[in-house]
Structures are given as C-alpha cells and as structure tokens.
Amino acid sequence: LRNKHQQTMPSGSTGHPCLEPMKTNPQTSSAPRSMNRREFIRTSSKTAAVLGASSLLIARQNVLGANDKIGVGFIGCGKRGVNHLQLIHAWTTQGKPLRIVALCDAYGPRLRDLAEGYQAKPYQRHQDLLADKEVDVVCISTPDRLHVPQALDAIRAGKDVYCEKPMGHWGQFALCKQFYEATRKSDRVVQMGIQINSNSAWQKVKELIQRGDIGRVQHVTAGYYRPGDWGERWPIPDPNARPGPDLDWKAFLGDAPEVPFSVERFFSWRKYLDYSGGPATDLFPHVLTPFINVLGLKFPSRVLASGGIYKYDNYGREVPDTFNLVLEYPERLSVNLVCTLTNGHNSDPVIRGDGGTIVLEGTNFGAGFRRIKRYPVKWKDESEVTEIPVTMPNVLADHWTNFLECVRTRAQPNTGPELGLRMQAVSSMGMLAYLKQKVAHFDAVKQEILI
Q: What residues form DSSP beta bridges with 163?
C-alpha cells in the first residue's frame, strides 16, 4: 500500500545534552503518488497471498470468543508503521479474526490519508487512541524516544503491546528499566519488534550450543553491512510543513531537548542524535538480540566503541555511518559487532567455542540465515563439517503470529521486555562510549551504566 504521505527509502558531538544525566566513573525528494481504492484493494490482495501460509487463531482471554475479532490500533504511521498495517490488513482480507480499528500519527495529512484507505478511526493523540474501547492491542512504530512513554500508557490502559525496536532512545536506559519493571507487575503481553528472534532456526543454534557441540562459547563475531543511508535520509513529503493542527511538534519531541522546528528533524529524524543512535539502535538490535537469547547473556560488564561519519557527511547527519562495538560479558564471553553503511559485502556470523565453531551462512539480519555449519576445532576437509539446512521464513508474520497467540494464551512472547532491556543496555552503553570516547561499564548490582 502506498500513499502520497508515506515515506519511502531512498560528527556526533561529545557534548550532547542526552549525556548529562549519566553517572561517571574513575533531504527533499518527490513523494509517491496516491493510491485509488481499486489499487488499494489489489495491492492488499497480493500481500495477502504472500502471507497466506501464516496461521493465526486468536481470541482475547475472558473477553472474546474463538471467532471474535481482536481490534488493533497503530501508533505511528511512517514507513515501519505501514509495514505492520499491510500485514494485518492482509490477514483481515483472509478472514483472520482481526480488524484494524484506529490509527494515530503526529502528522495529520498522512494520518487522514491512511485512515481513509484502511477505513480506520484517526487519532492525532495516542492517549485518545488508547481510550478507544474497541482497541485491544496496539502497535507502536514511533521515533525511539516515544516508545517507552507510549507503551507505558498502553499497558496502563489495559492494552497488549507490540513495540518496535529499540526499546527506547539510547539516552533513556533508566526509563527503559522503569518500563521493564512496569511490565513485570502488569498482566499485559508485550512483544519487542525484533522479528528475527521469531525465526525458528535460532532454536537449532541454541540446541547445538546447549548440547555442547562446540564446547563452551567464548567468542562471537557478527555484523550488519549496507550500501546506502536510506534508513536515515527520508524524503520530505511536504517541505513547507509547519507546526500547527496538522503537525504536533511537541508530541514528536517527547522528552528530547527543545529545539526550533525543523522539517528535516520531523521527517528524517533517524539522522539526529536527539532521536536516534544510528547502527547502535537501528541495526544492532537485529544482530545481537538472538545471540543474547540463545547464549543466555545478561548485561555486558564493559563496552568499547569506535566509528564515525565516514561517507554521508554532506547533509547534516549526526549519527555514525560506520560503527563497531566490543562487548565483554561476565559469562566470560566476548562479542565483536561491526557495521558500515558504505559497503554491502557481507561476512557470516561466527560462534566460537573451545570445542568447535558454528557459522551461520547466508545471513540476512532482517530475516535469518540459510544454513548452519558446525566445524570441529581442528579439521582437515569438508567431510568433518556438519551442515544443517534451515528455511528463511517471513519473520515479521511469524513475530506477529507469536504475539497474537500470546495475547490469546497469556504466555510470554519470543522477545519480551527483559530481552529488550538487555539489548537496550548494549545500545545505550555503545552510544555513550562512542560519544564520550571512554569505556562504558555496567554496575550489575545497581543496574546502572557508568562512564
């Protein structure tokens, strides 16, 4: 589904205001055309056909029967929000027990356009959407700083939550801890939007490790490589947009530093440190979270960071385009994460133990990998290598299926807030180490980041 308001793909300072609360320790382009009703239905039908294999039997516990429909509300209707809308709409066209009830966005033209296309109620304030009794679950796809406040409001309103990654902004670790504690005391189901964690192939990796096939794991290397900066530089649908009834600048800022309105900041927010962290917050959650899960890692004891803006330095970008982290875990394990947006040549993740090695070949961290290879510590030829084929599923559909099944059963989803918080610690520590040019430490007793 495309519409005229949907965004499509196309030197950080150490004195940043977000650093102050932490403790110390010794572009414009033309917009896509609008879609008429016939095109809207045809595109949705094609999407439905692609997703048709995903099963979904859901009902809200104690309220809905097996054939009743769960009402979904969407907070944030940019590109990622529309990805979720397309999926749920496709399922509704297949007769799944779901319905799109309401949409919320700080930009009025985009909100009205999508609400009309999906025949949903438009709300410009997320509080109003959460007060809608027809909304049972919410999907949050807003800028990073807004994730935790909106998710907290949602669980207080009695809604189950699918919240996009990262858990929060890199400067909000204390707030993310509050969110985690609030979910522990709540009966709400919360799924963090790191969809690769619903790829069942990771269970095979976990079984190999737990079985001792590579001994005790001591070292992991993984990376994310992309030849382009489209994740940060979004087209501007209306260069003349200004704050007012159709653009809620205050809602967009949240707890960010108050700055004069900028159309670039509003639409291309991922390139600014006030709202994003670049690879540390946008890409590394996809890379590291499944390793945290299968290896049972808690919080890193220290984090070292390096990188910078090496290529895309001509349009006011603040977040790095090349970024590297070295993580040391108290489990006596080291993780090396590397990323560049200047080159897409891939290298396969490697898990090294004292009794063997696992290589994940053909990896796409938006989805998964194509095969698992297990190598002994010493090997002479391929006959000693064990290969395990796996499938590359539609992980977004699988992640939503897992979430909605947990809404029905009240079980814990694949990527709950505890896992999200462990990943958040890495992102926050990495950005602080990078901007301060120091080593970030973690106090495991007080659960605090120290610089």
A: 140, 192
Does residue 264 surpass a pLDDT of 50? yes
pLDDT, position 70: 96
Contact 117, 35 (CB under 8 A): yes
Q: What is the largest CA-CA distance in the chain?
A: 69
Peptide bond into 166 cis (omega under 30): yes
DSSP 227: B
Distance of CA 429 to CAs 163, 305, 307, 381, 437, Å?
Answer: 21, 9, 14, 41, 11
Distances (CA, A) of 219 to 336, 337, 353: 8, 11, 7
Asked if residue 278 lies in contact with residue 435, where contact means CB atoms within 8 angstroms, the answer is no
Q: Are 442 and 449 in contact (CB under 8 A)?
A: yes
- Phi, psi values for residue 71, rounded to 5°: -90, 130
Contact residues for 420 (Cβ-Cβ < 8 A; gap 6+): 163, 165, 166, 167, 176, 180, 192, 194
User: Quick count: other Cβ atoms within 10 Å of Cβ 352?
Assistant: 20
What is the structure's pLDDT at 363?
A: 87
65: Cα within 13 Å, side-chain hemisphere: 2
**Whether residue 55 has pLDDT greater than 90:** no
Contacts of 378 (CB under 8 A, 6+ apart): none
Residue 82 confidence (pLDDT) above 70: yes
Q: What's the pTM value of the predicted model, to 2 decimals?
A: 0.87
CA 195/CA 199 separation, integer angstroms: 8
Question: CB under 8 Å to 247, separation ≥6 — which residues?
Answer: 106, 107, 108, 241, 266
Cα separation values, 196 from 189, 293, 367, 420, Å: 19, 11, 5, 13
Question: What residue spans of 283-416 are helical by DSSP H?
Answer: 284-295, 395-409
pLDDT at 45 over 60: no
Compute the distance between CA of residue 428 and CA of residue 280 in angstroms, rounded to an integer.
8
| 374 has a pLDDT exceeding 90 | yes
Residue 119's pLDDT band (cuts 50, 70, 90): very high
Distance CA 387, CA 113 (A): 49
User: Which residues does 383 contact at the CB level (< 8 Å), separation at least 6?
Assistant: none
Q: Which residue has the tokens 């009402």?
A: 71
Q: Token pair of 357, please?
A: 């090695």
Quickly tell me which residue has 């053909």 as its tokens.
362
Give the pLDDT confidence score for residue 66 in this predicted structure: 54
Length of the chain: 451
Whole-number pLDDT of residue 76: 98
Question: Any residues with CB less than 8 A from the CB of 118 and at least 6 apart, and which?
Answer: 85, 89, 100, 103
Q: Which two tokens stand for residue 32?
A: 């896509």
Q: Which residue has the higher pLDDT, 24 or 294?
A: 294
